[in-house]
What does this fold into?
Amino acid sequence: MAAALPRERQRRLADCLQRVVCQRLLPRCGGGLVAAQEVLVVDDAARALLREDRPAPTTPTLEAALGALVARGLVSRETARAAADHPGAVEPRQKACEAREGSGGRGAQPYGGGVPRTRPRNSAG
It folds into this structure.
């Protein structure tokens, strides 16, 4: 994103940023949504990289967050890999909702872009 800005604006952006958060909403096993988050804390080293128009490292990565969600049984491996920028880097430590709910869990594609779908409410009567 910063690379699209003129140099002077890149410098000002580097001075102002504190954190950058990227998240993807994924279908949760059993229904609903869960967020996979990647957070960059902008310290002096990251500011220097932004000023020099070099990419800042992110820790933890999106793939690590996806692996943790799979390990906790919140999303399926299939869903995590579909949401990952680097699917081969998603390394869950066992568990997964597939074991509880059959193969694939609920939905294999992450929600991207627009407004997340909501489940219809039960109507009384």
